[in-house]
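Page header: ASSEMBLY MODEL / two components / 283 residues total.
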Amino acid sequence: MFCSQCGANNADTAAVCVQCGRTLQAGTPATPLQVNGTVVPPTAAVPNYLVFAILATVFCCLPAGVPAIVYAAQVNGKLQMGDVAGAQAASNNAKLWCMISAGLGLGVVALYMILIMFGILNGISNH
Amino acid sequence: MLEMRPMDLRTVNLSAMNPRQRSLLLAMFAALALAASVLCVFDPATSGIFPPCPVRYLTGWYCPGCGSLRAIHQLLHGHLQAAWAMNPLTVVLLPFLSYGLISSALFEIRGRGLPEPFLRAVWIRALCAAIILFGIVRNLPLHPFDLLAPGAMLHF
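Prediction written out in full:
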């Protein structure tokens, strides 16, 4: 199947164009993609949270960020194959791991602040 | 910000967002601005107010993000070379991440983000591998690789 927008050659079952991201499976461009009965904007068919996954991996916590990136890749892989339901499931997992990562990161920062507070209180009481 | 909602693209704007989402978005922007100004004033290399990297603290190894706070501090002062020495990965990724963050914020505000190319799954996996590889390589005690440790290029 060739993309109507950029002309790239895609797999016949692809939900989005691998080159420009245009929705392919919705039939005519006027019919929006539907996931679980809700209308999805064509440009953001299923969010993969890649930006947050990378932020989590590099700036927050590597062990929880890597699964988020892997699921983000899975979202786009399933969209390429036309598996919108699978992409949505992977999207939920990507989001979950971003949340876990954010929680762990905030936890570490909070712990560090508590320790600093105790350190300051300890210093005051020693004087 | 992480929520996908059914919507008519034309009607979503800031006033149409529900109050909780709106205040969450504003709170995130405020936190980001506060973090950037603290990071601009205090240098993580010399100041003790920033938490150490848990990976580095627990294992003694540099993670792919080690040095990124120092790198952003240098970037905020316009020192690209010093930032590159602290963490080249951060310097490379930061423009793309900023674009993506702005796009998500715009998506929340007006229901439509900035134009983003569709990334094939294989490229996302390659990026993931590159980040992990960078984390491994910068710990190697061999000469060309040890320059990737935070700050090592400053003494080159």
